[in-house]
Request: fold
Amino acid sequence: MEISTDDKDARWRVIATDLRAAILDGRYPPGGALPSEPELVRKYDVSRPTVRKAIETLVSEGLAYVMRGRGSFVRPMPERRTILITDRDRPDLAAPGNHPDVQAFGWDLAQRDHEAPLFTGEKTTANRNVAVLLGVRSGHPVIHRRSLWHRGHTAAVHGASARLEINSYTNADLLPAWDDPKRHAQYRKRPDFFYQSLTREHGPVRWMTLTTARIAYEDERTTLGMDYAEAVLIIRRTMAHPNGHPIEVTEVKAPANRYEIGHHRELADAPEADLTPQELADNGIDLVI
Amino acid sequence: MEISTDDKDARWRVIATDLRAAILDGRYPPGGALPSEPELVRKYDVSRPTVRKAIETLVSEGLAYVMRGRGSFVRPMPERRTILITDRDRPDLAAPGNHPDVQAFGWDLAQRDHEAPLFTGEKTTANRNVAVLLGVRSGHPVIHRRSLWHRGHTAAVHGASARLEINSYTNADLLPAWDDPKRHAQYRKRPDFFYQSLTREHGPVRWMTLTTARIAYEDERTTLGMDYAEAVLIIRRTMAHPNGHPIEVTEVKAPANRYEIGHHRELADAPEADLTPQELADNGIDLVI
DNA sequence: CATCATTTGTGCGTATGTATC
DNA sequence: AGATACATACGCACAAATGAT
Reply:
């Protein structure tokens, strides 16, 4: 059959490499159409499955997208906005989803399914991942708080709005007041109360923020409104005792094609706390962690 | 033909969803084998191309990998080491690839193809992306310095060592001394001289570091030694005039499954400058930017 | 409004090559 | 050497979305 036999120049790989170079070069401009499958079949004299394999590769690399019945297109890159990480021991600012702050920083609708509380909050048990983060055993009771934010339709390419998901996990042993009905309601509506309780009962704490990324899973693509194959930025902030034992972990997930992460020193001379919400928004800052 | 016809329950999608859930659940443990293609063909009563499509999906999501002649396996997650971002105006530390520092922070072999200079350095012209970063027009002369670092075989899963790629772009107009043969050699061997020149000639400068991520392209996977589909962390540090105009841009690319990004305040009480190289390494820190 | 050409999505069967055990 | 498993590639058929006629 005389197939190329060398994996390095498999025919689909040649096509993918050609197209990738052309896209990164700008020969196919962002938003523009790539050649149709039949065109590529003719051009490279291969079968349609081979052409499709090449295009699927570009899609999985986030370089292209496909619309059924229309064709394949170069994926445009939206402008990235900024998530600002603070170093300070300021639980007021550090509290994620602290309503006044987050709203002020450019979030149009801080609603979650039209319900009142900012966070869903429920007592569950730690799965393997959460157990590692909190330094407890799997199955240990934890408080799981979750919040989903979206930022109104900006100059979005496909009409999709940017979203952020915030998950918070707390060792339930460290916040027995959670079960008090009155406080429970407060905690769900006012994250600052939540953090104040923790700091009041567990004294001076350390904050530690680590950032990484990975490819989004399909369910995350759905909840974060990511149309294409993309990476998610994962910002994990740990509130810990001075001895290092974790008290609470907050994990922010953000689509990597819409967000970048900066640090407070980067804002000219004035510390960010002295900037007005409008000034922060003008600097492209959506969230302060 | 009676094909399911509804894209939502495409047969390959059902299989992929099943396998993904099983992997995230731990029913297929990390490093363990997934069912072989023929097994899945029998289990779901579909053709082999359909099974392969499902597996390819998991691979492109970074959840699995395939070894020819052996089978498909759940991708284990290696431990992440840390890249530390400093906020200070310290060009000595800030200089990437400053030989003594980088080596001290745990890099066994800071060699690049067994050549002497740490950085390749050449004068080229700005492509579109670099032009945007430096605030010049496409085609403007720029100095491009490049360096590739690898960290010896740690507890790597597949024997691959972690690697970092560092690219630096400078507006060539701002460093005419680059063309002086004597200095040229110095600049390539001693990045600190390079940055000292820039700061000496352009006075007080601002440093700005922004981090984001995206899915790695195939060529990047090769140079960064990433066996699987993965995200790359992109750390972009800009050296700018106080008025904001860029002088030099350093871009670090790191495999997101092996690195996370932290900040200097997180190191206990002592600033990282006071820690010995060994203490830094013990804290899992590979690089200070 | 219906029809048609174009384009992509899903799926089958088959053949051959190559790596691993 | 043989069995197993994955990689590449072809041809074919039909479904479904799109846009123009």
